[in-house]
Amino acid sequence: MGEPRQDAVELFVYKKKDVSIVCPQCGLAKNVPLEPLRVKGHWEVKAKCTRCAHVFRVRLNFRKFFRKPVRLEAQLADGAGESLGRAAVVDLSLEGIGFDVQEAVRPLAIGDMVHVSFPAVDGGRIQKAATIVSLRGKRLGAKFVDGAFDPAIYAWIVK
Ligand SMILES: [Zn+2]
């Protein structure tokens, strides 16, 4: 395709209400509110400089690997929806989840897929499928199967 090569600007936006986007060509800085981007879950947006008309990409880094400590009651289920027991979510990131198993129906192993259900910031429920990647006693680490930006998880991270 005839897409012109563009500069890409990476911005770290964890816990910010707006971001300052700097044109890589002329240096013009502009503050842009983050909320509309966050709701849409965009990782990358196109920007056009209001001074020099340069078009460039802005990559929004929502601190994928930042882990927010939390304490949330959770239900675990397997892929078929059978209960695997109760757990407490102890940390959350956009990439995955850490939890302590409280009552396990059967032992879980690395590579197992679990469905974790826990409260959302707005009072609803969050349901995530995750693959277990680490085991340390009762503490399990799991990576979300769906790697897409999830506003419900982000809401916990910035809370
Ligand atoms: Zn410019």
Structural class category: mainly beta
The unique ligands bound to this protein are: zinc ion
Count of individual helical segments = 2
Report the helical percentage: under 10%
Shape: elongated
What is the strand tally? 11
> How much of the sequence is in beta strands?
over 45%
Q: Report the major sheet.
A: 6 strands, antiparallel, barrel
Q: What is the string of helix and strand elements? A: EEEHEEEEEEEEH
CA gyration radius, whole angstroms = 19 Å
Mean pLDDT: 84
Which blocks of ≥5 consecutive residues have pLDDT under 50? none
End-to-end gap: 42 Å
Spatial ordering of strands, largest sheet: 6-7-8-11-10-9
What does this entry look like structurally?
It contains 2 helices and 11 strands, in the order βββαββββββββα. The longest helix has 7 residues, at 151-157. It is elongated and about 60 Å long. The strands form 3 sheets. It has a 6-stranded antiparallel β-barrel with strand order 6-7-8-11-10-9. Strands 1-5-4 form a 3-stranded mixed sheet, with no helix packed on it. It has a two-stranded antiparallel ribbon with strand order 2-3. It has 159 residues and is mainly beta. It has helices at residues 35-40, 151-157; strands at 8-12, 18-22, 29-33, 44-48, 55-61, 68-77, 83-92, 96-104, 113-119, 125-136, 139-144. The structure holds zinc ion.
What does this entry show, briefly?
The protein is mainly β. It is built from 2 helices and 11 strands, in the order βββαββββββββα.
Provide the descriptors you would attach to this structure in a database record.
elongated; 159 residues; six-stranded antiparallel beta barrel; three-stranded mixed sheet; binds zinc ion; mainly beta; 2 helices; 8% helix
